[in-house]
Amino acid sequence: MKARVLSGIQPSGNLHIGNYLGALGNWVRIQYDYESIFCIVDLHAITVQQPPDELRVKIREIAGIFLAAGIDPKHSSIVVQSMIPAHAELAWMLTCITPVGWLYRMTQFKAKTENQETVLDGILQYPVLMAADILLYQAAIVPVGDDQAQHLELTRDLAQRFNSLYGDTFTMPKTELPVVGARIMGLDDPSVKMSKSAKGAGHAVALLDPPERIRKTIMRATTDSNPAVDFENMGPGVRNLLSIYQAFAGWSDDQMRSHFTGLRYGDLKKQVAEMVISRLEPFQQRYRQVAADPEYLETILRQGAERVTPIADSTVELAKSRMGLYTGSTVR
Ligand code: ATP
Ligand code: MG
What we know:
By secondary structure, this protein is mainly α. The chain has helices at about 15-30, 40-45, 50-70, 85-95, 100-105, 105-115, 120-135, 150-165, 210-220, 235-250, 255-260, 265-290, 295-325, and strands at about 5-10, 35-40, 75-80, 140-145, 175. α4 packs across α7 (about 120-135) and α4 packs parallel to α13 (about 295-325).
């Protein structure tokens, strides 16, 4: 039996090249090595208020993006989180064994609540729901970008805590980070990671941006006060542009050095832009085909939910019975 892989993306804005390089592109590469489940985590997205009509559209858009990127629905399950009630059920059980101190320590919690007058409970609980997503399917591997590494650590802590309190129940998951591209930074501000929910036209290249827009965003990217690429002395903006190029081109460090050393920033940006555009073009074409058939998309989502529901339900039954909750039988 193949080990199970699980990962997810929130339908909280436009998917960007960071999501692709840190997550989606990896999923496509490794999907056949595992039994794969890829989630559109809409229950996570509502930790920030979403206009309902936009959210409905985004869920389908992301399903289309998964397919266009190369997730194969015959092999891998594409799942909308809110179609499977077990996610929220298990999250509650895990909430009840989670010390709040563990949650206040999360750097994403700190970053996302900075300067907010009212902090909603969902933002604090988010990592517990994420732990439930993973443990629900007894996933062994979780391929994510490195901003999620801390949440993965928390998931492991929670699995261990539950297992030691109630007996062996959950598989201990491990993360898998991409070698290059695990953290793509904002093009307007290379000190923060590129995020769907960040505002500002110059922040991200979205996967569905037209070529002209991609060119414009990359040409405006923040660099530093040097005129040209110097690998011994470069700021985070230039480093970010180079890692975007490297991840899309699949080049080695040596190839990067010999090609880019001494290149002026204007030319660097042009080459990065053309590389990104050429890699996204076939993907965008497939997206247009997929998006033209909404009924097919609905079928894929229904099939995904049907395929994973038995796994999710049996984990919830097991966890309930371990905790002494009502399961209709007294076994275990
Ligand atoms: P949001 O701002 O709504 O949190 P996001 O861009 O952080 O959006 P998520 O849906 O939270 O996207 O994360 C989806 C996946 O993309 C995760 O595996 C995450 O690690 C990865 N990811 C997100 N941002 C980046 C980035 N800048 N570089 C590499 N990987 C990323
Ligand atoms: Mg995020």
